[in-house]
Design goal:
heterodimer, A: about 230 residues, alpha/beta, six-stranded mixed β-sheet, 7 helices, globular, B: about 300 residues, alpha+beta, Alpha-Beta Plaits, four-stranded antiparallel β-sheet, elongated, binds adenosine-5'-triphosphate, binds magnesium ion
């Protein structure tokens, strides 16, 4: 579960508030879109969830951790409950598809036999089972994003957060990725997806939280507040 | 931690060393040089300490008799020596006996082949009761008529004590500076390895790797560099020491210097080198990782 209560975030070196009192609650198993214009604070919300940033005031609860008072050495364990997917993929170029995914398991101390069992399964889930020996630069943008999703999934997190996962993809590829995320959500994973692509959001009919200038301006299944992109 | 992780960490650590062959080589060289100097100073200090201790333990004083004194009077000086309270006994050694002992010691040495009994003085080997009072006793011995010169080990020891003090200060300063230098070099080598893999580190952080786990391959790398440096330095130190002792032994016919054989220093030397290598390697890599982990 993700719960924000009156969260204010001020980047100290600038002084203006990126978030000005955000409250929201995302239950386990939900699939939520987070939309809002550039600079509205979407990435800031994600960084607060992953423990990269601390709230200036207010409370942030994520999967049983209280982020406003989490200890540094607890953060890795919080992060194991969250899989993160970025717009720019952040793949390791000199590792193959298989190694990129295996690396994420190794990083948290998984045993070799677990890795051997799980990586092929996850790669099949995202449809990359035929490309396991390729390197990221030998993949299309959509395939790279699938790989990034596979890596986020492999440690079986309860929540997946995707920051503009389809920003670099054409509409058809974007739809495929969203459908993949939808499938993953059906397997029981909570999903929070940040996107600019309103036509995608419309096709899915999920809950949409829209924020603007650091405030939640609408939240619900009915739709979202229009904004200029 | 599971066993296969250990294998992985070791592999990653060694990979780093080969990835930056030249930097690793430089780091090892600097470490070797530093440890050699550190080791040499330590050994020198150790030897000087032992010599000073030995010299201070000797409670024998040589009292040389004025050569112009007739033999009979020379012998009577002994009575006066024996009157000094701190003297346990005084054994008369004639210049002929002294020559015999001298020849026995230095028969192989060309430089002393022409020494005659007349070149030497009669002397008393005076054994003291309390070594602490040696200075007072020497002063009293000097006051006796017919005594030409006194040779006491502590005078030599005092010379060594000065060396000892200078050495001590110099070594501590040099050791600190050099350890810092190798620390810096190893730290930079590891930093380079880390910079190379900053993407991997970012991913590891993202998926929830602990800092300790991220660190370990780099610490393994630093540790290995330090240990290789220590091992090479240890071997070189041993060779150099033996060569030096041999050379000094050949020159120093007066046996002014005594050296402990290296084998006797083996354990403390191994401990020192391993500790220094460990310190330099582990601390060097540990500190360099800090800034990469702050995400
Ligand atoms: N590291 C930072 N230091 C100072 N200000 C920042 C920092 N990161 C973000 N901001 C500011 O905080 C506000 C919110 O930024 P954020 O990145 O959360 O926006 P966003 O909604 O993700 O935008 P985009 O859609 O363009 O990614 C912006 O005004 C931005 O300039
Ligand atoms: Mg953003």
């Amino acid at each position: 579960m993700i719960e924000f209560t009156d969260v204010v975030k001020t980047y100290t070196d600038v002084g203006n508030d990126a978030l000005r009192g955000v409250s929201m609650q995302i239950e386990d198993g939900e699939f939520v879109f987070l939309v809002g214009p550039s600079g509205s604070g979407k990435s800031t919300i994600i960084k607060l969830i992953t423990g990269e940033l601390q709230p200036t005031s207010g409370t942030v609860h994520v999967n049983g951790y209280s982020l406003e008072r989490i200890r540094k050495r607890e953060i890795p364990y919080l992060r194991r409950t969250i899989g993160v997917v970025f717009q720019d993929f952040r793949l390791i170029e000199n590792k193959t598809v298989y190694e990129n995914v295996a690396f994420a398991m190794r990083a948290i101390g998984a045993a070799d036999n677990e890795i051997h069992d799980r990586v092929p399964y996850i790669l099949e889930l995202v449809g990359l089972e035929n490309k396991i020996h390729r390197h990221p630069n030998e993949l299309s943008g959509g395939e790279q994003q699938r790989l990034a999703i596979a890596r986020a999934l492999v440690n079986n997190p309860s929540t997946i957060i995707a920051d503009e996962p389809t920003g670099n993809l054409d509409p058809a590829r974007s739809l495929e990725i969203m459908e993949l995320l939808q499938e993953i959500n059906k397997l029981g994973t909570t999903l929070l997806v940040v996107t600019h692509q309103m036509e995608l959001v419309e096709q899915f009919g999920n809950r949409v939280i829209s924020i603007d200038e650091g405030l939640v301006v609408s939240d619900g299944m009915e739709g979202y507040r229009e904004y200029e992109v | 931690m599971k066993f296969n992780n250990l294998g992985y960490l070791m592999k990653e650590g060694f990979r780093g060393i080969f990835l930056h062959g030249f930097m690793s080589f430089a780091a090892v060289c600097v470490t070797v040089a530093c440890l050699l100097i550190v080791g040499s100073f330590s050994i020198l200090m150790y030897n000087v300490n032992i010599m000073v201790e030995d010299l201070n333990k000797t409670n024998e004083v040589l009292v040389f008799i004025d050569e112009t004194l007739p033999d009979a009077e020379a012998k009577s000086v002994g009575t006066k020596i024996n009157q000094i309270p701190n003297v346990q006994n005084a054994v008369f050694v004639s210049r002929e006996e002294a020559l015999k002992a001298f020849v026995a010691d230095y028969q192989d040495n060309e430089a002393f082949s022409g020494v005659q009994a007349e070149d030497l003085r009669h002397r008393y080997v005076v054994t003291l009761m309390d070594n602490e009072l040696i200075k007072d006793t020497v002063a009293q011995l000097t006051g006796i008529a017919g005594v030409a010169k006194i040779s006491a080990a502590f005078e030599l020891a005092e010379g060594f004590t000065t060396i000892q003090n200078v050495l001590q200060i110099a070594s501590i300063a040099i050791i600190i500076v050099l350890l810092m230098v190798s620390l810096l070099i190893i730290s930079n080598t590891v930093k380079l390895a880390m910079y190379d893999r900053r993407d991997e580190i970012a991913v590891m952080k993202m998926v929830g790797a602990t800092n300790g786990f991220i660190r370990l391959p780099f610490v393994v790398e630093g540790f290995t560099l330090g240990m290789i440096g220590a091992a090479i330095a240890f071997g070189l130190e041993w060779l150099m020491y033996d060569a030096l002792v041999l050379k000094i032994g050949a020159e120093d016919t007066l046996k002014l210097f005594s050296f402990v054989p290296f084998t006797e220093l083996l354990l403390p030397m191994i401990v020192t080198f391993v500790a220094a290598g460990l310190f330099v390697g582990v601390v060097g890599s540990w500190t360099s990782i800090r800034k990469f982990l702050d995400v």
